Amino acid sequence: MKILIPIDGSAGSQRAVNYVISHLDTFKTPPAVLLLNVQWKVATANVKLFINQDVINDYYREQGLSSLQSARAALDEAQLSYQYHVSVGGPAEAITQYAREQAVDQIVMCRQGEGGLQLFLLGSVVGKVLHLADCPVLLIK
Question: What CATH superfamily is the domain 2-140?
Fold first, then answer.
């Protein structure tokens, strides 16, 4: 079974990782875990006039790896193998596209953010993922 866990570096995304780890005994064989961090596209045409594309790509990669750090550490400690990927774009679209490309069996994600603007943004991402996904989506409280 392939499980995709979108990671934004929040406590909620860490809860999704911990949920998968704590339920490993429900699988006949350990699942293939895919971690995905999506970076909002910040480089518009005007920005690209002043900043080299390689610098922008390095920024996306650094921010993505930073967001993935806790999730990777938890999976390493659980001795569960995983793959990770950093994508750029709209989170819901990137999550569902990556799930299709990787033939994911299930997406596991937190159902909401921590509050305020984050709650609004993550809530809308969850709603879009539920609407766009071709596979089951498990929402963790």
Answer: HUPs (3.40.50.620)
At 59, the amino acid letter reads: Y
pTM: 0.88
Q: What is the pLDDT of residue 54?
A: 87
Which residue ranges make up each domain of the chain?
2-140
Rounded-to-integer distance, Cα 43 and Cα 80, Å: 35
Asked if 92 contacts 6 with a C-beta cutoff of 8 angstroms, the reply is no
Under 8 Å between Cβ of 80 and 32:
no
pLDDT of 116 strictly over 80: no
Number of residues written out for the chain: 141
Report helix, strand or coil for 53: helix
